[in-house]
Amino acid sequence: MTTHEPSISPNDNLKGFLLAMLSSAFIGSSFIIKKLGLRRAGASGSRASSGGYGYLLEPLWWIGMITMIVGEFSNFVAYIYAPAILVTPLGAISIIVSAVLAHFFLKEKLQKMGVLGCILCVVGSTMIVLHAPGERTPSSVDEIWELAIQPTFLLYTASVIAIVLFLVLYCEPRYGQTNILIYVGICSIIGSLTVMSIKAIGIAIKLTMEGWSQVAHFQTWVFLMVAISCIIIQLNYLNKALDTFDTAVVSPIHYAMFTSFTIFASVIMFKDWSGQSASSIASELCGFITILSGTVVLHDTRSSDPASVSEMYMSVSPQVSWYFPANGDTWKRKSEEILLPDFDAILKQDHFT
Predict the structure, then answer these.
(1) What are the residue ranges of helices labelled H in the chain?
(2) Contact (CB, 8 A) for 332 and 323
(3) Do β-strands 346-349 and 320-326 pair in parallel, antiparallel, or remain unpaired?
(4) Is residue 126 located within the same domain as residue 252?
(5) Do 149 and 292 sit in the same domain of this protein?
(6) What residue intervals traverse the membrane (predicted)?
């Protein structure tokens, strides 16, 4: 079988860089537009986080979907021209775009520590990019298939499937509404397999356009089916994450986890660390730790949900709270406040520490 050894010229890298930047701008905007659509749909029906699909009838959500598709298509083309190790970390731009737009359109305030978390994610990604090894682009889909069926990557794939099933079947029903890492984790872990498949499809398209057709190879269609399946799962759980938590937090956490798992998958599949110096590997590991730190900071500083009605009274010690039903509404006065005789007072003893 005749193969073609494609080369990545500086112009190709520049094209990939510009397309990745454009992709991040579109994807960052799509987070905001889709969130607005999800809010509208949730106001008139079942929310996506509760298993509802009313957002499919919301035009604004579809505009966000189209924006995301344009961004993902730009990202897809970027993988054709540049290595995944270069394209994937540039998703940090989508964090900045979504955070700025969320501030103006969604009124989601990101705390100072949240900003620090974003910076840590970007710094960690920059460290990885600066010290990442050069990627040798496979010459055909058959060569990528050989890399995909090597024992170490098969073990990684099996681990991804097992973890995702655990998160979907056990963690999501119990903690999905309170822990942002459940929805985002499913989306990000599956995303690492998506990128590997998209890279294979991109190479197949590029080689076909250059005269070395890859259409007849069954591996091309296998990678295509894997990519489509993974993308559907990603979109489903990304919608749930956006509908449940603040966009300004979902976006950077998704980026940090997605980038980490994608680079890890690329290291296993393409053996990127082979031949690297110890200092370069240590720098990349520091980048991963920095990204993880940023993720933890963002998770700890996310906006808390509004308190429920039963939690509206304060548990202070010692103190008595008085509840007054008036015109169907419940009002509360502290014991030291003046009581009006017209109200029917109900005494309730607060919690004493």
Answers:
(1) 10-44, 59-81, 84-87, 92-101, 112-131, 141-148, 151-166, 172-175, 180-209, 218-244, 247-270, 278-300
(2) yes
(3) antiparallel
(4) yes
(5) yes
(6) 16-33, 53-70, 76-106, 113-133, 153-171, 180-205, 217-237, 249-269, 281-298
| DSSP annotation of 90 | G
Domain that holds residue 188: 112-302
Indicate whether 174 and 104 sit together in one domain: no
Domain boundary among 66, 92, 108: 108
Q: Which amino acid is at 12?
A: D
Give me the number of domains the chain comprises. Answer: 2
Stated pTM of the model: 0.65
Is residue 228 in a domain? Answer: yes
Residue 212: which of 269, 134, 270, 138 has the closest Cα? 138
Backbone angles phi, psi at 351, to 5 degrees: -70, 135
Q: Return per-residue pLDDT of the chain as tens, 353 residues.
A: 444 444 445 566 677 778 888 998 898 898 888 888 888 877 776 665 556 667 777 888 889 889 988 998 898 888 777 777 777 777 777 777 777 788 778 877 777 777 887 788 788 878 877 776 655 667 778 888 998 999 999 999 999 999 999 999 999 999 998 999 999 999 999 999 999 998 888 888 888 887 788 888 888 999 999 999 999 999 899 889 988 888 778 877 887 788 889 888 888 887 767 777 888 888 878 888 887 787 777 666 654 434 333 333 333 334 444 444 544 444 444 444 444 444 444 444 444 44
Last residue of a domain, one of 256, 281, 302: 302
